[in-house]
TrEMBL record:
<keyword id="KW-0808">Transferase</keyword>
<dbReference type="GO" id="GO:0008710">
    <property type="term" value="F:8-amino-7-oxononanoate synthase activity"/>
</dbReference>
<comment type="pathway">
    <text>Cofactor biosynthesis; biotin biosynthesis.</text>
</comment>
<protein>
    <recommendedName>
        <fullName>8-amino-7-oxononanoate synthase</fullName>
        <ecNumber>2.3.1.47</ecNumber>
    </recommendedName>
</protein>
<comment type="subunit">
    <text>Homodimer.</text>
</comment>
<keyword id="KW-0663">Pyridoxal phosphate</keyword>
<dbReference type="InterPro" id="IPR015424">
    <property type="entry name" value="PyrdxlP-dep_Trfase"/>
</dbReference>
<keyword id="KW-0012">Acyltransferase</keyword>
<feature type="domain" description="Aminotransferase class I/classII large">
    <location>
        <begin position="40"/>
        <end position="373"/>
    </location>
</feature>
<dbReference type="GO" id="GO:0030170">
    <property type="term" value="F:pyridoxal phosphate binding"/>
</dbReference>
<dbReference type="Pfam" id="PF00155">
    <property type="entry name" value="Aminotran_1_2"/>
</dbReference>
<dbReference type="GO" id="GO:0009102">
    <property type="term" value="P:biotin biosynthetic process"/>
</dbReference>
<dbReference type="InterPro" id="IPR050087">
    <property type="entry name" value="AON_synthase_class-II"/>
</dbReference>
<dbReference type="InterPro" id="IPR004839">
    <property type="entry name" value="Aminotransferase_I/II_large"/>
</dbReference>
<dbReference type="InterPro" id="IPR015422">
    <property type="entry name" value="PyrdxlP-dep_Trfase_small"/>
</dbReference>
<keyword id="KW-0093">Biotin biosynthesis</keyword>
<comment type="similarity">
    <text>Belongs to the class-II pyridoxal-phosphate-dependent aminotransferase family. BioF subfamily.</text>
</comment>
Length: 383
């Protein structure tokens, strides 16, 4: 019986030989720390940018969604959450998905049609990539943030397609870089293309009101379709898309990851509402994580444009997998958890430590991390 799966074992063994085998590790989180095998770690690996995930869930009267949104799983609170997201995003409408992955993959798979073209950044999240793969449209992947490459593809291919969609993350999850949205919007105007962005790592963190990078760069009104997650800064679980009524109505009728999946659980909806309350009512959380992020970059002498310096994802690219794992272990040995990110999550030769910051981190915790990174201990080959 097991022989039928021996090819999986061989592949797992091959991953193990190249230090790429990954395992689930049970951890007990408490605030910005967790306990693993009895040892305590400060968590620099979570996407809980505003420190909201560790807050208690508001009590709800029922446990499950019960059915898909279209059948009878859409409740008054789902409607209220969708309205609040539309209001945060300043769009006509919004709807909610079971996860950010379902939102990204579903929207990109559904909106571009058979005679269309999708242009997609090479470092886009897997969920956008899978959406491209599922779509009936033609696809071209452009080099990371390369506006000239986008222009050249549009010059060559625009006329052969009915519609063109430019799909990009606004903050790239493994690099902490920001998409050149102003330039992309200019190209969309020039070539009659439509931008679709994923604000997964930006909602709650970027922009004066916390709606994301589109707000921070002043292009909210130029980017009609904006996807996001409830699972990172908002501190809950689930995904959303915000846009014009006609687009949201079309998705409700056509998007398979929305139609054929149970609606978001009521406890996740309530937690997301509480997260939005904090984003609106406690801007000091946003200001704090932004300040910690620029302090970390300044201390590590990482020079970026001002808008990028406040992004709470700071990669330290070390290149090879062994060095990166050793660096992560050396930080873990002193109680600091910084995940080692390896291929295939990042391109070959770019393994890295990915530091993510939270408004919950104390100045002392950050200082300890900075001290050890600056001393270079984690990067020295072990004796
Ligand atoms: C850029 C990006 N988009 C989408 C997602 C998916 O969001 P979720 O975790 O809510 O499924 C993630 C999460 O890992 C992400 O990093």
């Amino acid at each position: 019986m097991t022989d039928r799966f021996s090819h999986f074992r061989e592949q797992l063994d091959a991953l193990d030989r190249t230090s790429r085998l990954r395992r689930l590790v049970p951890r007990s989180p408490a605030g910005n720390q967790f306990i693993e095998n009895g040892a305590e770690f400060v968590n620099f690996g979570s996407n809980d940018y505003l420190g909201l995930a560790s807050q208690p869930t508001p009590s709800v009267s029922r446990r499950g969604g019960g059915s898909s949104s279209l059948v009878c799983g859409w409740t008054d609170v789902h409607e209220q959450l969708a309205d609040r997201i539309a209001s945060l995003e300043s769009t006509e409408s919004a709807t909610i998905f079971p996860s950010g992955f379902a939102a990204c993959s579903g929207v990109v798979a559904t909106l571009p049609g058979p005679n269309d073209l999708i242009l997609s950044d090479e470092l886009n999240h897997a969920s956008l990539i899978d959406g491209c793969r599922l779509s009936a449209a033609d696809r071209v992947v452009y080099p990371h943030r390369d506006v000239l490459a986008i222009e050249s593809i549009l010059q060559q291919q625009r006329s052969q397609h009915e519609r063109v969609w430019i799909v990009t993350d606004t903050i790239f999850s493994m690099d902490g870089t920001i998409a050149p949205l102003v330039e992309i919007c200019d190209l969309c105007d020039r070539f009659d293309a439509i931008p679709i962005v994923d604000e997964a790592h930006a909602t709650g963190v970027m922009g004066t009101n916390g709606s994301g990078v589109c707000e921070a760069l002043g292009v909210k009104s130029r980017v009609p379709i904006r996807i996001g997650t409830l699972s990172k800064a908002i501190g809950s679980q689930g995904g959303f898309v915000a846009g014009p009524h006609v687009v949201i109505d079309y998705l409700i009728n056509r998007c398979r990851t929305l139609i054929y999946s149970t609606s978001l659980t009521p406890s996740a909806v309530a937690a997301a509402m509480a997260g939005l309350d904090s984003i609106e009512g406690e801007p000091e959380r946003r200001a704090r994580v932004q300040a910690l992020s620029s302090r970390l970059r300044a201390s590590l002498e990482i020079i970026t444009p001002p808008v990028e310096s406040i992004v709470p994802i700071v990669p330290v690219i070390l290149g090879d997998v062994t060095t990166t794992l050793a660096a992560a272990k050396s930080l873990a040995d002193i109680g600091l958890y910084v995940p080692a990110i390896r291929p295939p999550t990042v391109p070959d030769g770019t393994a890295r430590l990915r530091i993510s910051l939270s408004a919950d981190h104390t100045g002392q915790q950050l200082d300890r991390l900075i001290k050890h990174l600056r001393r270079g201990d984690p990067f020295r080959p072990s004796a």
